[in-house]
Amino acid sequence: MRKHNKKIGLPPGSVVFTGNKKVDNVHTHYLAFNETYCNDQIIESHSKTILKKPSIEKNDWYDIRGMHDTDLISQVGQIFEIHPLIQEAIVDIHQRPKFEEYENGIFITLASISFNSTLLEIKKEHVAIYFNTGFMLTVQETDSDLFAYVRKRINTGKGKIRLRGADYLAYALIDSIVDNYYIVLDEIEEVIEDLEKRIIETQQVQDKNKIHQLKKELMSMRKSVSPLREAISKFSKTENAFIEHSSQLYVRDLYEHTIQVMDTVDATREILNGLQDLFISEMSLKMNQVMQLLTLISVIFIPLTFLAGIYGMNFVNIPELKYENGYFVLLTVMVVIFIGMLLYFKRKKWL
Amino acid sequence: MRKHNKKIGLPPGSVVFTGNKKVDNVHTHYLAFNETYCNDQIIESHSKTILKKPSIEKNDWYDIRGMHDTDLISQVGQIFEIHPLIQEAIVDIHQRPKFEEYENGIFITLASISFNSTLLEIKKEHVAIYFNTGFMLTVQETDSDLFAYVRKRINTGKGKIRLRGADYLAYALIDSIVDNYYIVLDEIEEVIEDLEKRIIETQQVQDKNKIHQLKKELMSMRKSVSPLREAISKFSKTENAFIEHSSQLYVRDLYEHTIQVMDTVDATREILNGLQDLFISEMSLKMNQVMQLLTLISVIFIPLTFLAGIYGMNFVNIPELKYENGYFVLLTVMVVIFIGMLLYFKRKKWL
Amino acid sequence: MRKHNKKIGLPPGSVVFTGNKKVDNVHTHYLAFNETYCNDQIIESHSKTILKKPSIEKNDWYDIRGMHDTDLISQVGQIFEIHPLIQEAIVDIHQRPKFEEYENGIFITLASISFNSTLLEIKKEHVAIYFNTGFMLTVQETDSDLFAYVRKRINTGKGKIRLRGADYLAYALIDSIVDNYYIVLDEIEEVIEDLEKRIIETQQVQDKNKIHQLKKELMSMRKSVSPLREAISKFSKTENAFIEHSSQLYVRDLYEHTIQVMDTVDATREILNGLQDLFISEMSLKMNQVMQLLTLISVIFIPLTFLAGIYGMNFVNIPELKYENGYFVLLTVMVVIFIGMLLYFKRKKWL
Amino acid sequence: MRKHNKKIGLPPGSVVFTGNKKVDNVHTHYLAFNETYCNDQIIESHSKTILKKPSIEKNDWYDIRGMHDTDLISQVGQIFEIHPLIQEAIVDIHQRPKFEEYENGIFITLASISFNSTLLEIKKEHVAIYFNTGFMLTVQETDSDLFAYVRKRINTGKGKIRLRGADYLAYALIDSIVDNYYIVLDEIEEVIEDLEKRIIETQQVQDKNKIHQLKKELMSMRKSVSPLREAISKFSKTENAFIEHSSQLYVRDLYEHTIQVMDTVDATREILNGLQDLFISEMSLKMNQVMQLLTLISVIFIPLTFLAGIYGMNFVNIPELKYENGYFVLLTVMVVIFIGMLLYFKRKKWL
Amino acid sequence: MRKHNKKIGLPPGSVVFTGNKKVDNVHTHYLAFNETYCNDQIIESHSKTILKKPSIEKNDWYDIRGMHDTDLISQVGQIFEIHPLIQEAIVDIHQRPKFEEYENGIFITLASISFNSTLLEIKKEHVAIYFNTGFMLTVQETDSDLFAYVRKRINTGKGKIRLRGADYLAYALIDSIVDNYYIVLDEIEEVIEDLEKRIIETQQVQDKNKIHQLKKELMSMRKSVSPLREAISKFSKTENAFIEHSSQLYVRDLYEHTIQVMDTVDATREILNGLQDLFISEMSLKMNQVMQLLTLISVIFIPLTFLAGIYGMNFVNIPELKYENGYFVLLTVMVVIFIGMLLYFKRKKWL
Lengths: 351, 351, 351, 351, 351
Ligand SMILES: [Mg+2]
Ligand SMILES: [Mg+2]
Ligand SMILES: [Mg+2]
Ligand SMILES: [Mg+2]
Ligand SMILES: [Mg+2]
Ligand SMILES: [Mg+2]
Ligand SMILES: [Mg+2]
Ligand SMILES: [Mg+2]
Ligand SMILES: [Mg+2]
Ligand SMILES: [Mg+2]
Ligand SMILES: [Mg+2]
Ligand SMILES: [Mg+2]
Ligand SMILES: [Mg+2]
Ligand SMILES: [Mg+2]
Ligand SMILES: [Mg+2]
Ligand SMILES: [Mg+2]
Ligand SMILES: [Mg+2]
Ligand SMILES: [Mg+2]
Ligand SMILES: [Mg+2]
Ligand SMILES: [Mg+2]
Ligand SMILES: [Mg+2]
Ligand SMILES: [Mg+2]
Ligand SMILES: [Mg+2]
Ligand SMILES: [Mg+2]
Ligand SMILES: [Mg+2]
Ligand SMILES: [Mg+2]
Ligand SMILES: [Mg+2]
Ligand SMILES: [Mg+2]
Ligand SMILES: [Mg+2]
Ligand SMILES: [Mg+2]
Ligand SMILES: [Mg+2]
Prior knowledge:
The structure is a homopentamer. By secondary structure, chain A is of the alpha+beta class.
């Protein structure tokens, strides 16, 4: 089924999941914390313990795994007064990364990526982040714990994260996703280094296809990174009541990271273009050598074979054939031609 | 007949249809609505029931199908005090997508597209949208109901469309056209995936031509999408009495869509460039194999054939010919050369 | 003679014609008009009836044909107080299109183009436009009536042109030149469509040269259109006493046209690049087929010919030669090899 | 010796000449002028008549030829209070063209170029210009009189140059250098037109190398023109006490020239890219023809030669050989095959 | 081990060295100076003589060699109140060059480069610079004395460096690193000039690989230069209490240098692209010549060999064989064909 058919003709704000269901038990990882307090629990059954509007004095982070449960998202949207357009964007996995300010909160969406170095494929997971003062909602497609490191830092009280609000938490979450971008680029770099060595040694069909495949994957990664960079730029520059200025110093640092990722993606694409050029010129070079060999052998033997053909003719009167040493003279002539040819090709640097 | 000849030498504001007549019965789909009221009717005979200036309390949407009827457009223009330059642009199918503010209303023009996956052709239809407070005029080339989904939402009262004015209706109409862009891109993606598989297996003339064709069509699509993106950007940012600020939140979302469409068009074009490169390197690779085979066979047999030629000569005195086992010695020599050649090519990785 | 040698070392404001004389009888088409009055006459002899400073109540349009008469231009410049730099630019046919505001008037220069579809050449004519309140001066290289349509509209009182001033007239004149750009692009498009069909069928030397020629011409056209677009943009945005705001609405429309022309020029250039790629891959494909044929024939017959050579040798003792049906056995072996080869190539999809 | 080694580790403001000495007798061409007065003299011996700070009532232009005399430059710098960074830049021939405002004056540096149409090389000369009210200092590498035309205009009182100050003189000097850019581009264009004709007729090694050479030279020219354009743009827009507004009208014109030069450089580079593509496709086309000829001859004669080989075998029992007209039947078969082949290739458009 | 794994999951401000330890004895080169005073010493044992907060009246420059000692960096950070994000950036060798203003000081990071002309590799060293009024901290990876020239100028009191503060010192340090960029580019230029000569003479596999290698290294250099240019631009334009306006005049000059380096890097990359094109067209040209030779020999001898084959057949009745001078007639025919072929190829410019 086609990607965008599901949403045709629907009014804006329709909460329609555009991906494939990836988790069976939709559940929410709830974490409430402030400087002195930390409560970490998993909500399995949303129908019973419905999410409640949190108090101001602590930070409440609802991390929902299972984006396909649009009813849950709608309910959450109503309880926390989330704008319908945000609700729609949360469950639209084709959504471009963006940073948007609404009256009640800040919405950020981005892609978490990982690299399969066997299939040479980048796997993307859509992540939605919404926060205001003391409240954080994140929605993921799968139940892989993307934010494990951040959660651990909160639980162990490492760094400043417990001292700060939802804005800093948003920074920390995005930062941990952007860290994965570096990992993916490192892995791709390794593949490319292998590929380069192999292309210089031998040119094989599968290497050409691998370059093609990697170019496509990097193009796809670029489509996630480029708008993310813009989004983080907005995040770092906006003046919004939900974001403290001291947090933005960290977002500025994160912005530098996205620029660096972007630069690396582009540089990697150029390297792949270079590899492709290398592949093609290696092939041309090999072709040249093949043709030189063919021409060498042909140019040497075709005239000799012609000479042999001449004296294989059955004319009654071919005087040379009757000479006692005619055969030996001809052999000598042939050797001279042969050596002459070799010298000629030696001078032409073919040998 | 050439595209632009019709308008040579005419003063600005001349209402000249630049396309081909595509509908016989020009008719107007009239839909009046507000929060509580909804009246849906089709005006077949414009000569009798002329369009009337609508009242303020409700929204009046005149959806004219049949752009070639320039008299009708002029009449409507006069009744609703539409600027001559707008009247001209409404019926100019070569008009670039644009968003323009005039004293009496807002004018938007764009292209609706569909994809013929057999001919690999994108079909474009020019659509003109003009509105002010409570009034909406749309003009289409054909009588296909481009806006069926929006009309249905108004009739059924789904979403917020009945609660809002002509500005929100304009958003909804453009949104439903931009939705089709996604569909077209999905369809093109399917064609490209097929093409890619086929090119990796075998390289055929028609595949090369299909890449060329798709590149042209995407270039043409880009020519519609790029100015549309600018137009929607203006729509989302302008401060104009005919547009409510709350509607612009939706237009901002639409703007994101046009950026995404643009990105996808550009990415698809790059994929096609990549396919073209793949096609060419596949062909080179195949050529190399062909030449290697030719060279292999030639290099092995040309010297052997020369040897056979030598002993096919008719010199009276060729001592080897008279040896009892001369033939068998030569055959052995030939087998040795043959095997030597095979080993040589094996070492060179040709076999 | 080289293009720019004429002006070396001269002070700025030197009125030097940089082109070739293209008209013998320099003459001026004079047209005075306002809402109620219209006087159309041709001034043949400038020496007698010298141009006079016009009154304010009507619009006076002096259309000089014959740019090489630099004395006349200087005289006109003095009478109408035209800045020396403008006088110089009027007669410099290598002048880039531009829009410049001076204390006494507005100066616009641009190129009028036409396409020779036989030679595939774009012919350019330099046009200079200078105006202030109620005064219009245009200078053309040749006596072809570039502005015939506008003149006719004034004479017949069609459109609003009689009701408006020199600023609107300037708009109308430029618009009529830009209309020709569309015509030229339509004609080039026709040539390209022909070319495309021919390249898909057969690849010929002249087609390659035609692509090269068209690319050069479009590059040249781009050099005229790109600065014109900037100039019209300035025209549409400037706040100048010589230009009424209501005229600028029309200039804005004209600006859209120049963007569209520019887009089309660039798209056409990309199409030509695509055609070039197509030409090259068609040639590669054909080369592949040629090489496959050569290889097919060689690979089949070279071993067979070798076999025939073996049994053409004159050794006294070749047992096979003496077998009664040796010949028929060999023929059978050859047929088997022949058929085996055919099957091999069939499997490799060469046949 | 390497270009930049000379300056390693030196503090800023070090007056180090980075080029090669090009003139033996360093001398200064001194020209003092105002509306009524003009004094033109050459200062040969700087050690005796040291340069003196000029009075305000006239313009004093010191035109030093011989950039390598860094002591002289330092002395002049001290007398006229020129900033150390300017003194450094004056004698640094690798300096990018720039326009800089200092407290005491304006500094401009640019490259004067000429073209050697035999070696296809652009020769650059570094020129430094410094001025303030009534004072002009220019420094050149060689004693070629780059500014001859301007000097002549001052001496003869042609144009307005005598009536104006050092700012206008600066304009006139730069203008005369930019005029040379046009000459160089005209000369390169001539070379390219020759090249194009030759490539269409025959493809030769040296033509390929010439394209490569010209591409390099134009890249080098671009490196001078691109920053010059920016510099002139600053010159035309700055508000500085040393520059009168009426002079800037002329600088604006000069700015247009630099844009045009830039456009032409870029267009010429694209033309060279086009020529390169043409060269390569001409070569491919020729290769195709060569291969077609080889294939034609091979495909026709290889089977015929095989047939001849068959009947050259020495089997005791080959019935055909004994037929009275066996030879003639075979010849007929061969002619039929030959003609069949020709018809086949005719149909394939090879002949 | 992968580049970015070390930092996964850590909170911002974690001081983690991301490179490889390059120096055994971490030590600090301490230099205190003002107009009249200069004290140069090396601190070997940081555990004993811990760095002390310097007084305001003089400039204290701590130049730490050995970036891997993160404990030392943390301690220094605490003593001098350096922001945690700076501490992290100091020891992150993958950090993009940047200029950042914090409340307590200015942080600049960049790469020092050198070129290995045998391996064709650019070696990068990460350098961190932090300063405020009277305080300068630099951290290097190795103990190579990158800043020897600057230190010498301070010790000898050359230039103005002793009269000025840490801001000017920062300028001088960066300037001395950027000077190395010129050296590297000069060295690369030499390699390219060699390469170009060799490619025009002969095309070898290693040349192709060298172009590929240099393209990669320049891409890597560009990744350091491009953000440095932006950083220096910020440095030259910022209004910050730690930077005097008179120093920024020098930074502006430095900014010009980074632009020039950037231009040269890009120009060099284009030259490499040009070389690659040259390599490929040289190969094509050579291939053409090879094929022409093969075709020439084949086309001449294949028909002649066929003729010899005809008269080598053993038909009992071949009348020509019995003619007394049949052999000589045939030889004459063959010579005629041979000469005819030669003339044909002469006319086709193959010989
Ligand atoms: Mg690239
Ligand atoms: Mg690239
Ligand atoms: Mg690319
Ligand atoms: Mg590339
Ligand atoms: Mg490419
Ligand atoms: Mg490349
Ligand atoms: Mg390339
Ligand atoms: Mg592309
Ligand atoms: Mg591309
Ligand atoms: Mg491309
Ligand atoms: Mg391409
Ligand atoms: Mg590509
Ligand atoms: Mg192009
Ligand atoms: Mg292109
Ligand atoms: Mg191109
Ligand atoms: Mg191309
Ligand atoms: Mg392209
Ligand atoms: Mg292309
Ligand atoms: Mg280029
Ligand atoms: Mg180009
Ligand atoms: Mg290029
Ligand atoms: Mg190219
Ligand atoms: Mg190109
Ligand atoms: Mg091109
Ligand atoms: Mg390049
Ligand atoms: Mg390039
Ligand atoms: Mg390039
Ligand atoms: Mg290029
Ligand atoms: Mg490139
Ligand atoms: Mg190139
Ligand atoms: Mg290329």
